[in-house]
Description:
Blueprint: H1 8-17, E1 30-31, H2 34-44, E2 51-55, H3 61-69, E3 72-77, H4 82-89, E4 96-100, H5 108-115, E5 122-127, H6 133-142, E6 149-155, H7 156-162, H8 173-181, E7 182-190, E8 195-196, E9 203-210, H9 221-231, H10 239-246, H11 253-262, H12 276-290
Parallel strand pairs: 2-3, 2-5, 3-4, 5-6
Antiparallel strand pairs: 1-8, 6-9, 7-9
The protein binds S-adenosylmethionine.
Residues 26-31, 55-58, 61-62, 76-79, 82, 102-104, 127, 129, 132 line the site of S-adenosylmethionine.
Amino acid sequence: TNKYIATPIRTKEILKKYHFTFKKSLGQNFLVDVNILNNIISHTGIDKEAGAIEVGPGIGALTEQLAIHADKVVAYEIDQRLLPILEDTLQDYDNVHVIHEDILKADVQEMINKQFKAEQPVHIVANLPYYITTPILMKLLRENLPISSLTVMIQKEVAERMAAKPNSKSYGSLTIAIQYYTDAEVVMHVPKSVFMPQPNVDSSILKLTRRKNPPVHVEDEDYFFPIVQACFAQRRKTLRNNLTSHFKGIYDKEEITTILDEINIDGTRRGESLTMEEFATLANTFYKRSK
Ligand code: SAM
C-alpha cells in the first residue's frame, strides 16, 4: 500500500516536490491512512457501476481510492495550486475529472447530467473542509440532487448534532434541518492521527441517506425552519418563552400558550424535547393562523 497517496511517506514526498504549504483558511487536513479511506468507501454502497462526487480532493488521497472502487469520480477543488498536483498524482486513473470551482457556487445538477450516465447511482463522498461543513451539506440537500448517499468526514460535534435524537445535548435546529432531508448516522469516530496536519478537533464519519419524502408534512419550509430555530434560540428557555420572543408584536404569551394547548404541546417544555413531528404540527398551526 506504500504506492497509495494516502500514506505519510507519499504525502510528504508530494508536498515537498511541489513546495505545498497548507492553507488553514481552506480547511486543508489531508488523510494519510488508506484503511480509513476504505472504511469510508465501504459505507457508501459504491461499486464499479457507481459514480462518485468528491468535494475538495486535496492531493488526491480519497480521490484515488474512489477511482479504484467506482466507475467514475468528479471532484471539485477550490485551490488552484492543487490542480497541477492532482494531474500528477492521479495520472494513472483515467476515470477522474477535476473541476476547479467553489462547491458552494457550482451547478452540481448540470454537472451530473453531463458527467454521469442517466440511470447511474451517484454518491457524494468527502473529507470536508470543516469551516464550511454545514453550508456545503445544506446546499447539496436543498438542491434535491439525484444522490444515493452522502458520506462525509466532519467535525465530531457537528456529526453528533446532525445525527442526534430528541432530549440529548446535541439535538437542535441543525438536527431537524439535516434529518428532514436524510436519515443520518454516525458511522465511526476517527483519531486525529490519520490527518496531516492534525486538526485541533475530533472527527467522525457521517452517513446521510436521502429520504424519498420528508418524514413529516410541512406546509411551508420557509416558515418551518425559522420556527424550529426560534424554539432553540435560548436552549434553557421554555418553548413558550422562545416563541413569545419570536412572535413579538404578533402574539403575546397567553395567546401562544392557548395555541400550544390546542395542539397538546406543553409550553413549559424545552425545544430539545420536541420530535420532528411536533415541530411540524407547531409550525403548521402558526402558519395556518398567519394566512
Ligand atoms: N480529500 C482530501 C483528503 O482527504 O486528503 C483533502 C481534504 S481537506 C479536509 C479539504 C479540501 O477541500 C482541501 O483540498 C481544500 O482546498 C478544499 N476546499 C476548501 N473549500 C472548498 C470549496 N469551497 N470548494 C471546493 N473545495 C474546497
